[in-house]
Amino acid sequence: MEDGTLVVAVASLPKEISARLHRKQNNSIRGLLLQSRWVVEKLEDDSCVVTYVVRLDPTG
Length: 60
Known about the structure:
Layout: E1 6-10, H1 15-21, E2 32-42, E3 48-57
Antiparallel strand pairs: 1-2, 2-3
């Protein structure tokens, strides 16, 4: 963005693809990451603030 803010957006693979990549374990539940993003904001003194925002379905 013009003010130096960076946004990196991420989402899960579709269930059909992820099911083939990761074998299901008996004692675990795989949640579904609907959306997530890293927001990196530049501050005045050559430092930054990093915020991680997550929207997920724990499916449990």
